[in-house]
């Protein structure tokens, strides 16, 4: 039986790479996105690779969209095996200059979008006594760099939600994975809201320089789900830093301070 996969934000970047990774395995892949033109292109790519693609309009800011898709997929496929809560946007700014409108926007999509995805599909997973959630957080939620408070909080929230559901749902046969990549190249900067001049270009350059690709992150996700792993930490250097944070917090604080000074200078924050 081919796997049945639903991915939010599947029309671009990581969501697309995950869709194509599962398509290569012959999976049935539904992508939900607010960008229907790009969604249709990815649907075709999925079909070309041997999967069965299906693109739907989905705004993760609306619980009703996710509930409707869940019902539709249950009717169409007889169930769903994997939900990837991936849709996300970026934000940056100092605490005093970031507006509450931008805080609400980023939390609504990045954090509540994942909450809604989990809420909408959990009843089906419980009925099936099987299913897996992959929640896309970020290294930004584990290593909290300055000038990124709203994005960091949204991603730390996704990590907290995922750790909670990992315990709450595992005895119902429901697996949870939490993905925490550092920078890799996608179209994420296009959505970035910030009043720091030039930050999109600077972040764009860092993404371009990354030796980790969206395909590698998608591969790590595929393997984690197969092996039943919770954490997906695709970047080796940041993975080591996270271990330092857990095992030697004072050393981590010193290293983070040095890194933060460089980061603020580069990003143009008023340090
Ligand atoms: N690229 C990176 O460096 C990086 C690093 C860590 C985590 N992430 C996370 O990876 C995830 C995917 O982002 P990406 O880097 O592929 O960016 P991307 O911009 O290429 O893709 C994001 C997709 O989400 C969709 N989307 C945005 N708002 C939506 C909404 N309200 N409802 C449904 N779809 C919506 C967009 O249309 C787009 O197709 C995000 O959660 C992001 O925070 C990215």
In helices, the fraction of residues equals: 40-55%
- SSE order, one letter for each helix or strand: EHEHEHEHEHEHHEHH
- Strand order in space, largest sheet: 3-2-1-4-5-6-7
Instruction: Tell me the number of structural domains.
Output: 1
Description:
54% of the residues lie in helices and 13% in strands. The chain is α/β, with parallel strands linked by helices. Strands 3-2-1-4-5-6-7 form a seven-stranded parallel beta sheet, sandwiched between helices. Strand 4 (82-85), helix 4 and strand 5 form a beta-alpha-beta unit. The termini are far apart. The model has no long low-confidence stretch (mean pLDDT 96). The structure holds nicotinamide-adenine-dinucleotide (NAD). The site of nicotinamide-adenine-dinucleotide has 29 residues, from helix 1.
């Amino acid at each position: 039986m081919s796997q049945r996969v639903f991915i939010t934000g599947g029309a671009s970047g990581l969501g697309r790479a995950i869709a194509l990774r599962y398509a290569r395995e012959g999976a049935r892949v539904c992508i939900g996105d607010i960008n229907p033109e790009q969604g249709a292109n990815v649907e075709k790519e999925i079909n070309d690779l041997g999967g069965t693609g299906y693109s739907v309009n989905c705004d993760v800011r609306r619980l009703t969209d996710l509930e409707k898709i869940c019902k539709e997929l249950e009717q169409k496929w007889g169930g769903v095996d994997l939900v990837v809560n991936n849709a996300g946007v970026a934000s940056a700014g100092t605490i005093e200059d970031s507006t509450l409108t931008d805080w609400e926007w980023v939390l609504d999509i990045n954090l509540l979008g994942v909450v809604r995805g989990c809420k909408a599909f959990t009843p089906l997973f419980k009925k099936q006594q099987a299913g897996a959630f992959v929640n896309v957080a970020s290294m930004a939620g584990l290593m909290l760099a300055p000038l990124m408070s709203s994005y960091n909080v949204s991603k730390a929230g996704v990590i907290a939600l995922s750790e909670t559901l990992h315990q709450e749902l595992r005895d119902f046969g429901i697996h949870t994975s939490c993905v925490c990549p550092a920078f890799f190249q996608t179209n994420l900067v296009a959505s970035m809201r910030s009043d720091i001049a030039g930050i999109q270009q600077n972040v764009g350059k860092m993404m371009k320089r990354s030796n980790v690709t969206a395909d590698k992150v998608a591969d790590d996700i595929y393997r984690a789900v197969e092996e039943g792993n919770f954490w997906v930490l695709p970047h080796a250097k940041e993975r080591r830093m996270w271990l330092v944070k857990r095992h030697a917090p004072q050393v981590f604080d010193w290293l983070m301070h040095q890194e933060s000074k460089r980061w603020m200078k580069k990003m143009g924050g008023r340090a």
